[in-house]
Each structure stands twice: as structure tokens, then as C-alpha cells.
Amino acid sequence: MTEEGALSHLDDAGRPRMVDVSAKPQTAREAVARGSVFMSAETLRLAVGGGAKGDVLTTAQIAGVMAAKRTHDLIPLCHPLPLSGIDVSLEPDEQRGSVEITATVRTTAQTGVEMEALTAVSVAALTVYDMLKAAQKDMRIGDIRLVRKTGGQSGDYQAD
């Protein structure tokens, strides 16, 4: 266990380390992350209508699921986890001029799935950008954040 404010992924000498979770009990855990891809109204219509590269939203949804499953390959100190559920949804928001992405990831394990949910949102957003970049290069990816987590020793978290 680390002191309040200490960084758990650094040892006493400041070197990176994977946290040892072997003494922790396996508990049910869930994390929800969100993010947005901001674009023009015309590009948003392409996203909803399919675009030149096919079904943008479904492709990004699949990419988000795949990314959650591979988080430990992308983030060096993440544990490989047995994920029991991954839900990635993409919703167009005409008022904001965006595609809103939400990822919910579940496991029963010794560590949480916040990074998996955040990775799912990030890769889904990058996929939306990739599929629509021919139409608009100045799209903006933003607002990627953890909105809720449950389970584990640190307890539940709900963003404001």
C-alpha cells in the first residue's frame, strides 16, 4: 500500500514498477469513461450516414472494445485482466457538434479497469478521427475522463 499522495507505480528509488496486487482480494469492479470528438455539422452528418470508409460509429465501437482488451499491451505498467464485460457506445450530439463516446468495462479481479475504459474511449475517438479525416482535419478529441468507478480498496468514485 502507498502513502497518501505517493505514486504507486514508482518504487522507493523512483524507478517504474508494476504494482504487486497478489495480496489483494478479487472483487467485482467497473469503470465508466467518456470522451468527445468535436467536428462540423457536415462531418457529423458523414459520421452518422456512413462516410467514405463505411460505418464510422460501428467501426469505432469495435476498435474501442479491442483496445480495452489490449490495454496491458499499450500501457506499460497495466496488468492483463480477465475482462467480463465491455460496452462502448457512440452517440452523435448535434448541439455540441460531436460524437460522444462512453465505455463501461467490468471485471472481477485484484485491480481496477479504469485504464481499460479510458483506453477504449481514446481508441474509439482516434478511429472516428481516422475515418473522417478526409472530410475534416481540424476535428478535436477532448474531454476524455473517468466518470465513475466501483469496487476495490480505494472505494467508489463518481466525477462531479
Q: What do you see in this structure?
A:
The protein is α+β, with helices and mostly antiparallel strands. The protein is built from four helices and five strands. The protein has helices at 41-49, 56-69, 71-74, 114-132, and strands at 27-38, 83-93, 98-109, 140-150, 157-158. Helix 2 runs antiparallel to helix 4 (114-132). The radius of gyration is 17 Å and the shape is elongated. The mean pLDDT is 91.
Q: State the helix count.
A: 4
Described by the principal axes of the CA atoms, the overall outline is: elongated
The span between the termini is 27 Å
Overall mean pLDDT: 91
Strand elements, count: 5
Computed CA radius of gyration, to the nearest angstrom? 17 Å
Work out the helicity level: 25-40%
Poorly predicted runs are: none
Strand order of the largest sheet: 2-3-1-4-5
Report the order of strands and helices: EHHHEEHEE
Percent in strands = 25-35%
Largest sheet data: 5 strands, antiparallel
Secondary structure class reads alpha+beta
Annotation keywords:
160 residues; alpha+beta; five-stranded antiparallel β-sheet; 4 helices; 5 strands
Give a concise summary.
By secondary structure, this protein is of the alpha+beta class. Helices cover 29% and strands 30% of the residues. It is built from four helices and five strands; from the N terminus they run βαααββαββ.
